[in-house]
Amino acid sequence: MSRTSSIGLLVLLAALGFGVTYVLQLGSAPHIAAEQRLIDSRNLLDLIPSDSYDNQPLEHPISFETAALTSSTLLGGYLATRADQPVTVLLRSQTLGYAGAIELLIAIDANGRLLGVKTLKQSETPGLGARIADWPNAWLQVFSGKTRTEPGDSGWALKKDQGQFDQIAGATITSRAVINAVHDALRYFDEHRQALLGKPAHE
């Protein structure tokens, strides 16, 4: 076989290999995307019981402009429904901790009661504030069942600030930031309940 023929064969084989790889990638892309959506769904929706809703909340984002609140910023949200009735709002909140931004997912039921809080991103001190990212998280579970007014405004603070909540040991700033962000989210929900739940104003 001549040198030219050998080079031509190598080019042909390389092109064939590239083509097969490309086709396989195209075929597997939807499967990979579906798997990623499932992972995202599990990560974001494990705050709410799976039998409490029958829609795909991540496919029902709540439209509102980024809202700068007293101690945090709301980045977006999702709506979980059952039989076309709103049951839970999931709000993505960002606040400033000790070492940087902390992103939280805050689940609030249609009556304004907190179902749970989960840390999505954080850069706090390992072994101290970074424990906010543990899941499940005993400290975050303390907030479940609370509302904007239960406790009252003064109660939404650390005990060292005359509030009702303990802090994560050695992480006062982190704890304070999360408490304020959760209270912000409950206040925002209470003030924008109809818009978040997709209900007409007269209801």
Summarize the structure.
The chain is about 35% helix and about 20% strand. It has about 200 residues and is an alpha+beta fold.
Summarize the structure in words:
The structure is a single chain. The protein is α+β, with helices and mostly antiparallel strands and 203 residues long. It folds into 2 domains: 1-45; 50-197, no CATH class. 35% of the residues lie in helices and 21% in strands. The protein is built from 4 helices and 6 strands. It has helices at residues 3-45, 138-141, 172-191, 193-197; strands at 61-62, 67-68, 73-82, 85-96, 101-109, 114-121. Strands 1, 2, 3, 4, 5 and 6 form a 6-stranded antiparallel sheet that branches. It starts with a helix and ends in a 6-residue tail after the last helix.
Major β-sheet, in short? 6 strands, antiparallel
pLDDT under 50 segments (min length 5)? none
What is the number of helices? 4
| Portion in strands | 15-25%
Mean pLDDT: 87
The run of helices and strands is HEEEEEEHHH
Distance between the termini: 83 Å
Note the overall shape. Answer: elongated
Instruction: Characterize the quaternary organization of these chains.
Output: single chain
The count of domains is 2
User: How many strand segments?
Assistant: 6
Structural class: alpha+beta
**Range of helix content:** 25-40%
| CA-atom Rg in angstroms | 24 Å
